[in-house]
Design brief:
The structure is a homodimer of 693-residue chains.
Chain A: H1 7-10, H2 19-28, H3 34-42, H4 44-58, H5 73-93, H6 98-108, H7 115-128, H8 131-142, E1 150-151, E2 167-171, E3 176-180, E4 188-191, E5 200-209, E6 212-222, E7 235-239, E8 252-256, E9 259-262, E10 272-273, E11 280-281, H9 286-321, H10 343-385, H11 391-430, H12 443-449, H13 459-478, H14 486-497, H15 510-534, H16 543-566, H17 569-572, H18 577-597, H19 599-604, H20 610-628, H21 632-637, H22 643-646, H23 657-667, H24 682-687
Parallel strand pairs in A: 1-5, 2-5
Antiparallel strand pairs in A: 2-3, 3-9, 4-8, 5-6, 7-8, 10-11
């Protein structure tokens, strides 16, 4: 520990007004109901749970965060494993629920080497294993008697799962599979928890039966000894090295040299090989797997609001504490202005504040639709099984909704994670120079979040799926075969009014804002359809149009979900009129700011006029910034992210920014070092290094 | 070192086609003259120098880069100091010129703790010191007998230099200054080379003489003992801790408790205190200081092209090596497509490829203008001194051009560093999952570059200076007092044609593209002027408009400079027609892609029609992507960045991407660790942790 500051330093205070005074002032000038809003966002139960778990974690030294940013990777990953172990011990000791264990990980806010074991390995075993396999693998995995990972991506293949090179060849003679890596690029790569931790892996490999390829399937393969933890023979496994973030996780590589595994190690809930006939048995219900991906992506949408909220909370509080320059039009010496008062700061931060709410409500909407549909499909499947009549039609309706949900989740995953990831960087820069310090708490969080833009479908790749779905829907609508879902409806509404034009009243009528977003999506859809079906343009030449289309559609969905939320009885009933009114303004800011940024598409689709855009930009958006500004600090307070989770000097709840930055800086271990700063020895130094050495 | 791969792993090759084959193919399909173009960009002399210095650095183990990303901060900064020392020794040993020393640092591509000593400390002493002070400080500093830094920014003040809190009070009785930090927020902060290295600092402090404040001035203050390197009494100094990047630099803090320094320690070239009368003597020529900042910013513009080029080189080569999915319209099994063939990748990378050239030529243009003006002003000043007549008018013309250059450099610094910084992140993501690995070489470089968006004027703050200048120019033009510089000319041209409209032929005539950018700038300038002068809107309410205006103006300047470069005899004369033709296409891509992205401003200023934008988007830009695509690899090769500098598996010149990633991964030190992966001891493990512990 570096030497403590002398007394004359300890006696120094920051210049007045102090951050604590400024934040008190901020909180006094708004009546936004922080607690009620927090409960609406997270439920009272979840907030209580967070508080309870927080008190447990803070009492344990192993979870200390103070050295996170200075240690090298080998030390960090070892500490992180210790944290993961302790979390697991606490989980058993306190009999934590899934929600409690999840809350603990959220508060820790650092991936541990158990991360992929606790999620993908367990989930895959549970969802794709048979009861026999649950007994053999899942139970031991749940007890941390075996540790696993999910090995899909390879050195040469990420997005294109069908291109994976690892093979699993069925050996009819001894009823085994041979797992093999035929090339270097077949090496599994990026696999979380694999590098140093896992002793088992679910390996996705091309299944070959008698020379025929049946595509990628999941196999459980033991890779390390359960006692020595050394790699088994013909397995080459290790950590893939340092990354832009996620350095507390042992993402790994894995190669096999003709490793044999028994028949039972192919996860067989959906497809399997009949041991007697050596026949491949078809997947039972591919739509269920489809459903899982939809769930995973919807979850990313839901989380993106909270991810962004960390950055916005930090930046908003700090911009209320930081003062810089006097207002240029002020007369006399009025002191420096809070940075948050500058319009150039507001235009960067407040739309992100609106976005975090917008994404949260959109994610909730998605999850609700998903659950409803799952329930409906289960009921229909059961009805069909019991031959109670109307099953098939309901199943079809369910499948239609699921296809819509699938496309929706692809586009929204891309938009939401891009918004959150890029938004965090905007927040970091809005903090000025201090945003660059690790003590801002934004940089490390941003670095750890960025993979979300690539995994579960690269954000650019995903937009093709949205476009494909919209084109298909448009073809159906044109053929008079549109269904009853929202996508069909907006396409039909556009066709019905296309010739007479839109004339939406975006500045006077909020429902018209939603309609304008729908109109733009429909317009771009029929444009893209014309390029593809009439002009016969190549798929590749349309990728940029498809990306624009997907973005437009997803923005429409966010605007629609946000509008429905702020006008719903669930929200307006739970809040006083003032708080509900501020939320409504956030909706308008999100929608109009987005509209303004994408103005050229709104023009060219004739959804709005050039004059409307001018008014939006110069009047409506600027007025909303003025109106929301006084509530900014309370709006981030409502998210109720504990200081311990934020781990930020700039974003401290009490506003005591500068003393905290100073305390952390003076304690940082680089201050233990004493440099010999000279490039020369004493003799050279004395005479000056004029002669060549 | 982790255990080496077994023989069966060593025998593995990547899947065909190998990266080396694909890059050979790329280079074979284009005739772009890599060497000629490289010489045009950098000069043959500079390329030879780079090669020469590279061979020296590569031979020294101290410069090994392989552990850069895994070590903790304390170890990294110590190693970096060792590198800095060795560079200094080599510099003396080989009698390096400034250019050679600079080239060595560029190749090392890592800030060392000597960084701010070697630049800002020496520059400030040289430019702001008197001959007596040069003898006292500069000579020893140049010989590394004393080590210094430039201490301006404080914990509570970055952008607003006038708000600095550190004081320097003149004591007439003993002819000394007292340097003092009255508050905690007065602590110097972010000061490079201060934390552990410097024993001297140039401290910017508010000068007080007999109770009157004369604003910030520079003072040389010794802060550490020259032998023990311990801080002197009443000085509290240290490192500010870990950062998003720049972790090999000891950015520091510094507090003074009434430290006395002699009269000679106030740098006195421009202003000073008369020791006898205790009178403050006014600055001699503020415009010279003005000039230095302009030079620094122009340099950032010039370097931004090269900064971006590193990312574009890596991403372009890797996207030519990486293959993913078959083309959707392809029939039969044609194999996977190079990622670079996808339009969604091209639209992200190729405009950045164009940008790196555009920024480079713009920076060169700026530097040339700056030099010309410096020479002219020096001549005029000399003429004035010798009373040879026309001095004053020439000085006024020079000052007018300098004001233009100053505003231009502010806007371009903001645009160029934002383009480079954000462009690097686009390049990183275009590399897919592997972009996230530190071995991509992009992430660490991006992290180290980001401060450039904040220092030397925050990119958002700077835009106000551009707007202020444009408003002033517009007022002069309206009053019939416009000068002859380019800014006045474009404003005048707009006024002359405003009523009849623009009707630029942006798709047929390249000069018209430049004119359309000028038109948009002029339109936005007069709009902003109306808001401010006629509607009397507050400065704060116009900040967003000003930022848009500055961006528009700077984009115009880049388009103009790039156009002038690609049509200049200097370029066309040095290159064959094909290479020159490809450069010209890069100009068109940069300009039309920018125009398309900013479409709504081009519409609303009536610089172009909606129909023109549609054609630009659907035809012109897409066609340019097709035409430039075959030359992409040669266009990045031309930049001639050595592999050792790139430090990237993905961007290797030979395309041998996957074996290099694999080699680095298997050697990374995390693979030395053996985990005990279980959270329980053996007894619990055997029975399963079902009971509470």
């Amino acid at each position: 520990m570096p030497s403590p500051p002398p007394d004359w330093v300890k006696a120094l205070k920051p210049a007045e007004p102090h951050g604590s005074q400024l934040l008190q002032q901020e909180r006094a000038q708004s009546n936004v109901a922080v607690d009620r809003l927090g409960e609406l966002l997270h439920t009272k139960e979840a907030l209580d749970r967070q508080q309870h778990i927080l008190s447990i974690l803070q009492a344990e030294e192993v979870f200390d965060k103070s050295q996170n940013h200075t240690l090298g990777r080998t030390e960090r990953i070892q500490r992180s494993l210790a944290k993961g172990k302790r979390l697991q011990q606490l989980s058993v000791q306190h009999n934590w629920s899934q929600e409690e264990y999840h809350a603990a990980n959220e508060l820790l806010a650092e991936p541990t080497p158990y991360g992929l074991h606790a999620t993908m390995f367990l989930v895959t075993l549970r969802e794709q294993g048979t009861p026999e396999q649950h007994k053999l693998f899942l139970e031991r995995a749940q007890n941390y008697q075996i540790l696993g990972c999910y090995a899909q991506t390879e050195l040469g293949h990420g997005s294109n799962v069908r291109g994976l090179e690892t093979t699993a060849t069925w050996n009819p003679e001894d009823k085994t599979f041979t797992i093999n890596s035929p090339t270097l690029t077949a090496s599994k790569w990026w696999i979380g928890s694999l590098g140093r931790t896992a002793n088992h892996a679910v390996v996705m490999a091309q299944l070959y039966i008698q020379g025929k390829n049946y595509g990628p399937h999941p196999f459980v393969v033991q890779i390390r000894d359960l006692e020595t933890h050394q790699p088994l023979e013909n397995v080459y496994v290790g950590d893939i090295g340092p990354k832009f973030g996620y350095n507390t996780m042992d993402n790994g590589f894995l190669l096999f040299n003709r490793v044999k595994i028994p028949h039972v190690n192919m996860l067989a809930r959906f497809s399997r090989i009949d041991k007697e006939t050596n026949q491949y048995m078809r997947p039972a219900s591919p739509s269920l797997i489809y459903g899982t991906l939809t769930w995973v992506r919807s979850n990313i949408v839901l989380q993106s609001g909270g991810v962004l909220a960390r950055g916005v909370t930090i930046a908003t509080r700090y911009c209320a504490v930081r003062q810089q320059f006097q207002d240029r039009d002020a007369t006399g010496n009025v002191g420096e202005n809070q940075v948050l008062n500058y319009k150039m700061v507001q235009i960067r931060l407040l739309p992100l504040l609106a976005s975090m709410y917008a994404l949260h409500f959109t994610g909730r909407g998605m999850m609700r639709l998903y659950q409803e549909n799952q329930n409906r499909m289960k009921a229909a499947a059961q009805a069909a099984q019991e031959k109670r009549g109307a099953g098939p039609e309901e199943l079809r309706a369910g499948a239609d909704l699921l296809a819509d949900l699938h496309a929706t989740s692809c586009g929204l995953k891309a938009l939401a994670s891009t918004t959150a990831g890029e938004g965090l960087e905007v927040c970091r820069r809005a903090c000025g120079g201090h945003g660059y310090s690790s003590y801002s708490g934004i940089g490390p969080w941003y670095s750890d979040y960025l993979p979300t833009l690539t995994w579960e479908g690269d954000n650019y790749m995903l937009t093709q799926q949205v476009a494909r779905y919209l084109l298909k829907s448009a073809r159906a609508v044109l053929a008079g075969k549109g269904t009853n879902n929202d996508t069909s409806q907006i396409l039909q509404a556009y066709l019905a009014r296309r010739d007479m034009g839109a004339s939406f009243d975006i500045l006077g009528n909020d429902a018209d804002i939603v309609a304008a977003f729908a109109w733009r999506t429909a317009h771009l859809t029929f444009e893209a359809l014309k390029h593809r079906d009439v002009e016969k343009r190549s798929w590749n030449s349309l990728l940029v149009d498809f990306w624009r289309l997907s973005t437009a559609h997803s923005q429409y969905l966010v605007v629609k979900n946000f509008y429905e939320a702020v006008t719903s009885p669930e929200v307006t009933g739970a809040l006083d009129a003032e708080t509900a009114g501020v939320l409504h303004k956030l909706f308008r800011l999100y929608a109009l700011h987005t509209l303004e940024r994408e103005a050229s598409e709104f023009f060219s689709s004739s959804a709005v006029t050039v004059r409307q855009i001018g008014l939006t930009q110069n009047n409506a958006v600027m007025k909303l910034l003025d109106e929301i500004r006084p509530h900014a600090v309370r709006l981030v307070d409502s998210w109720q992210i504990p200081d311990w989770q934020l781990d930020s000097s700039l974003g401290k709840y009490d506003g005591d920014v500068y003393p905290d930055l100073f305390r952390r800086a003076s304690q940082n271990p680089v201050n233990d070092l004493v440099f010999d700063p000279y490039p020369w020895n004493a003799a050279v130094l004395k005479n000056g290094p004029k002669s060549k050495l």
